[in-house]
Design a protein that fits this description.
Elements lengths: L17 H10 L1 H19 L6 H19 L4 H6 L1 H7 L5 H6 L4 H18 L2 H13 L6 H18 L2 H16 L11 H24 L5 H13 L8 H27 L4 H5 L5 H11 L4 H19 L19 H11 L24 H19 L2 H8 L8 H15 L5 H18 L5 H10 L11 H7 L6 H22 L3 H6 L3
Helix pairs in contact: 2-3, 7-12, 7-17, 8-9, 8-15, 9-10, 9-11, 10-11, 10-23, 11-13, 11-23, 12-18, 12-21, 12-22, 13-24, 16-17, 18-21, 19-21, 20-22, 20-24, 21-22
């Protein structure tokens, strides 16, 4: 007789049942989102009819698939960004060769060359030297907290003009926290002025990085997405060059920047803060940081020379109709991207004079290039081309004609508000990729110049001021532990309102002159 303690049948745990194990995996949130993309795509293909045009229906289905994966990040965003390379041919929207061309154009070349130069600046600590020099310039004796805050914010904004916002925030945050480390930390005995100054500095860095990115085409991927979609959608129109964008965006960014500085001073700096902070913070701490870097060597000087030359070439390639710039010598065939790659190539030729045979840059240093941003840019251009070639653009244009009666002065701030709200929950680049193609069709539907909507939509996507998750730059500041969400809302909400107001004011005035939208 068998032992009564021995079961007649083997006990099978739920995890050992194949079907239940599979069900558990499927019910995992990540798997649900992975399946949701193709599922919604299939539903649209089966049950949606768009004026009897299969290509438009397929484009809408593919859009739903891609955006679901983007918004939920079911799979890494760079991989999602490559999905048009196989989805467009499979659904008959475009050939493989046509889609592939969207992933390498002059705008992406501009970004690629800029990334290499930014990596060189970071590798040789030039950004840190620049930050300390400028901050020392603004650190008065006796200490003037508003002036020091202005110096930190201005330095961050300037760096962000020439590289990605997140990179600028990451570079400047150690400088900012290095200054703050001389202040007492923790405990109820810490003076409130010290706590508030910490908040002001961290908020100033993350918001200045976003504002500086508005100023130049290379400051953020959103600007390049805008320029790329403008060029692909309206090839017969004058392209937006580096100097053209700067002429409009710099005054706008300047207005927003001083609004930020004023808000930070008003909310966090009291009249007596200078005497409190001067007991802990003076020029000597900053000078010690600078002395640790030592004098500039040959490599740093050459990188600065290459970088400065690139900026000059960008600014002078196309100036005005009367003064066409050096680009006219090449019959307009040389773009900003070609210049960017050419100057980046010099870094692989010029020796750094540190070790025999070593150049300023090598390919191993380029492994940190953010290919995710480049792939996202390519996906945005591919989607814009697909929306147009599939006929979906014309259908969207027809459906938006009810807005024709709305005054443009109302539509422009409304577009910026919607875009700036969406960007709090998705990445800036993803928001721009989603919104700009729709705005192109809206502008056609209501018979106004497309840039009057495209530019507010793009810049609105850069105004992620309210939540830590709005942009990686915000996360960089939030993880320092010096600010809370309520601090971001306290400054970010009025700053967003001021930004929308400034854009609504400049777009129909300065924008009309710069972009010839009248």
């Amino acid at each position: 007789m068998e032992d009564s303690k021995t079961p007649l049948l083997p006990i099978t745990r739920p995890s050992q049942i194949p079907h239940l194990s599979l069900l558990k995996k499927v019910l995992n949130t990540n798997y649900l989102f992975i399946l949701l993309g193709p599922f919604v795509c299939m539903l649209i293909c089966l049950f949606v009819d768009i004026d009897g045009q299969p290509s438009s229906r397929n484009m809408l289905a593919v859009l739903s698939w891609v955006f679901i994966w983007w918004l939920t990040e079911a799979i890494p965003m760079p991989i999602t960004s490559m999905s048009p390379l196989f989805l467009f041919p499979l659904f008959g929207i475009a050939s493989s060769e046509e889609v592939t061309r969207s992933y390498m154009n002059d705008v992406i070349s501009l970004m690629l060359g800029s990334f290499i130069l930014a990596l060189a600046v970071e590798h040789y600590n030039i950004h840190r030297r620049l930050a300390l020099n400028v901050t020392l310039l603004f650190c008065g004796d006796p200490l003037n907290p508003p002036l020091l805050l202005l110096g930190i914010c201005a330095t961050t904004g300037f760096i962000s003009m020439w590289m990605q916002n997140t990179a600028a925030a990451v570079m400047m945050m150690p400088v900012a926290t290095g200054i703050l480390q001389w202040l007492p930390d923790g405990g109820d005995e810490v003076h409130p002025d010290v706590v508030r100054f910490r908040k002001a500095v961290i908020l100033g860095v993350i918001y200045s990085a976003a504002i500086g990115g508005i100023t130049t085409l290379t400051g953020t991927g959103v600007n390049l997405i805008l320029v790329g979609m403008w060029g692909s959608s309206f090839p017969q129109e004058m392209p937006i060059g580096f100097s053209t964008w700067f002429l409009f965006a710099f005054p706008l960014a300047l207005l927003i920047f001083f609004a930020l500085w004023g808000l930070l001073c008003f909310c966090y700096l009291s009249k007596g803060s200078g005497s409190v902070l001067s007991a802990y913070l003076d020029k000597s701490s900053l000078k010690r940081e600078k002395e640790l870097l030592g004098p500039m060597d040959f490599a740093e000087k050459m990188i600065l020379a290459v970088f400065s030359s690139l900026v000059v070439l960008w600014m002078t390639r196309s100036i005005t109709d009367e003064v066409p710039g050096w680009g006219s010598l090449f019959h307009g065939k040389v773009g900003d991207g070609a210049v960017s790659v050419m100057m980046a190539t010099l870094l692989f030729i010029i020796p750094n004079k540190k070790q025999e045979g070593e150049k300023l840059m090598d390919w191993n240093k380029c492994k940190k290039i953010p290919w995710s941003v480049i792939l996202l840019l390519g996906a945005g251009f591919a989607i814009a081309d697909g929306v147009r070639s599939s006929g979906l653009a014309d259908i969207l244009s027809t459906s938006l004609r009810f807005l024709k009666t709305a005054p443009p002065l109302v539509i422009t701030p409304l577009v910026c508000f919607v875009s700036s709200s969406l960007t709090e929950f998705t990445s800036n680049n993803a928001t721009a990729t989603l919104v700009i193609p729709l705005l192109i069709q809206l502008a056609k539907s209501i018979n106004i110049h497309p840039l009057l909507l495209m530019i507010p939509g793009a810049i609105g996507a850069e105004l992620a001021f309210l939540l830590p998750t709005g942009t990686p730059s915000n996360i960089v500041g939030f993880t320092t532990g010096h600010i809370a969400i309520k601090d971001m809302i306290k400054i970010g909400l009025p700053l967003k309102v001021v930004s929308i107001g400034a854009l609504s004011l400049l777009m129909p005035t300065l924008g009309t002159f710069v972009f010839r939208t009248s």
